[in-house]
Amino acid sequence: MKLTYQKNTRRTLLACAVGLACANLAGPALADADVQGRITDNRSNLLSGAEVSIPELQLRRTTAADGRFYFAQLPAGTYTLLINYLGAMPETKVLVIGDAEQRLGDIKLLSASEAVEHIEVVGQSGAVSKALNRQRNAGGIITVASKDEMGQFPDSNVSEALQRLAGLSVERDQGEGRFVRVRGLAPDYNAVTYNGTQLAAPEAGRRAVALDVIPSDLLESVEVNKTLTPDMPAGSLGGTVEIKSLSAFDRSNDFYSFTAEAGYNELQSKTSPKVSGVFSKILDAGGETDSLGVAIAASYAGRKFGSENVETGGSWDFDNGLEEFELRDYSIERERIGLALNVDYRPGNNNEYYLRSLYSRFSDTETRQGLIVELADALFAGVNGEATLIRSLKQREETQSISALVVGTKQTAGNWEWLLEAGASQADENTPFNIAAADFEQELDEGVGFTGSSILRLTAPAEAILADGYELKEVEMGDTYAKETERNIKFDVSREIIQRHGSVLLKAGAKFSQREKRAEEDVWLFEDFADLGINALSLSDYAGGTVDYGLSNMGPAINSGSIYQLVASLNRDDFIDDVESQINDYQVDEDISAAYFMAQWERDNWQLITGVRYEHEKRQATGSRYDAIEEVFSANRVNSSEGYWLPAVVGRYNLSEQSIVRAAFSTGLVRPNFEQLSPAFILEEDDDELEAAFGNPQLKALTSDNFDLGIEHYADKLGVLSAMLFYKQIDNFIYEADLAGRGEYSSFAKAETFVNGGKADLYGLELNAIHKLSGHDSWLDNLLLSANLTLTDSAADIEWFDDGALLSREVALPSQSDKTANLSLGYETEVISLRLAANYKSKYLAEVGDVTEAAYDVYSDDHMQLDFTGKWTVRRGMQLYFNVINLNDEPYYAYTGRKPYNFQYEQYGRTFVLGVQITNW
Predict the structure, then answer these.
(1) Chain centroid offset of residue 397 CA
(2) Secretion signal: which residues (predicted)?
(3) What's the pTM value of the predicted model, to 2 decimals?
(4) What's 517's domain CATH number?
């Protein structure tokens, strides 16, 4: 076993943590007196994130989603109970502690505004208040989106909801948010958990979880931890996205909500339905009153839309012009189904048993009509010449599913608390027998070219769009399946010690997890149809309708049913591609054992968390090697073992009741993608030169040292101003490289794989401002302003060999935008709620096109999208709403090297949504 120590200072941090704990083990004798209660608003809505403190004992609690607080075994005496919540007046109560438990019941808070008597956490202001209170009272640096806040924007999935938060942005697929980036780091560098269990990823080669699979209706909140503490599992460099499920105990009464809506997309002119419902109930069980909570949520959404695309794929010869481009028209149908069932059993005051479940299914049916233009000679815009034209069809139905199940118990005995929990998650992606490409070709001797730069438009003779000139050349069919499972069990134990120098919480735990990733692929190539006796080879024999393509004229559409019928008439086994069907099959198994110890110390205005986590991983990767020279397959199995120490120190200091300074040092860890770890190996010979392409199962994990420093100022009524500096030094940065001419590949002309590089640096500034206007005695008091800006920069070195010489160049980290920003303006009365939101991210490096030449790097251009939502309260508990998504019709654009050189342009149109929501507030 090889141990990786993240610097000698980290061992010192562990010693400090143990020393701090041991120094505080002795405390005064305590009476057996507990205090508990709940914090609510005027409508008995439970308030999470409220700070409940006893200044004399220097004890502080933050209410959870159920609004509860609990102090165990307080010493006898008279104390002050102080409650603080943004948007509410501070509340104080006198506590007289003897040896009997005190149940304070519900404590309702008064509003900090002179205009209303009580606080109510509904609408825009209430949603922001919930999120800010949890953020303010957290030990580390977190960002929160509550269910109520997610409902203030027209976001249909978790990914789109997160794009509104400071430091976060999304990567889109067909205009919909899919993957989340945290502080400029790519989605694969961030972890996603569901109630503490890491979610499995459905895609074959990735660890990143596609959050568009999960409807936002199923959740209570999403919390993004930007600092890592030892009790959190490793798996992120940028942050951990923690999805928290709803619970019946998160509300004081039985609850239900029903939503129905219809959407309309400009490009498809079709209606898309959506319905969702939530129901929760608290029951008597086991002789206990209100001890059993059941919460059920379900969601269905169907969306029909389209996009229009033109792309070059980077086929530029900068000296001579463009070599190839393609027109694409997409027709897409997506369906999301989500289910959640959560059960809580709370017999007595100190015992909890819970079950959390999630199932989400995402079906994506895509038909892509294409026209590929292969120019005989590279040409610039406005010049025409000879070309091969290919009418191409891709048609597939891809289904992704994610499920998770968590069962556990939390027990409290005096100042001791322990938790035992088991979790499992499964994800898969299934794309059954589908048309990967059905190609019809024709040759034109002259007159073919293009105009424009970012939007390329075809110029060609009339024959280019007539079906009769195209002849069927080949049909490629595919069938892919990927599955990932994750199982874990963990145990945590903690004890709180109260003494004159402040309270100390000692916490330790262990976790064991198993992860398995399996990928399978089959490929068939049907060609030489004339030799098979097939006479129907013209595109006119397979045409059906006309392609509705707004960027140009593509001509008749290829009918997918006719292609499937053609393939069905042939014997599949005669056309299977043996190499492609085996070389991409692999399995990776990971066993991870982890343990941690941490201490949390609080005194006066100080809070300090310190400790260390150790994780050990055993991995086995199984795949195939293929020698194309000898035409021989062989098994390839690689084992590895690695251990990591991950220390952390997180601190906060309250300058005042409104202002907080935060600082943190933490360590992060991200394991390589499964595509990078795949043991597939292909050896070929081209013109008597050896070439190889292979994965690298021996890759080391990426690790990072993370430094954070910032200040937050919270307004008395509602609002925040914050600035956070952060810096990350990343070791073992992974990139694709050519090892030809090096070591065992010294005689190779090409040896492409993935390698660990040296260091990469990421640093930035995160600014956030939220302000609820007040004191104007006019319509201005109904305004809520929200803005955030994240500035980042990064640098990493990539290397390659040229005639035996090692060369390198500096690149930015993939997916890192220099600027990410959100701006929203809200207006709300008791009847009307309006919100206009702008989301912006600057350009970023999408991929390294050619490791040796920066001119071929691919950049995604800056993107700003406007969204609008309006709500009308018809009566208490019933709202009508109207949303406009992509109000400014923002397209997606990527370019090769410089903006005039199109890599991909795609437009999506606007989407309009009309809906109704009924809730028993």
Answers:
(1) 23
(2) 1-31
(3) 0.88
(4) 2.40.170.20
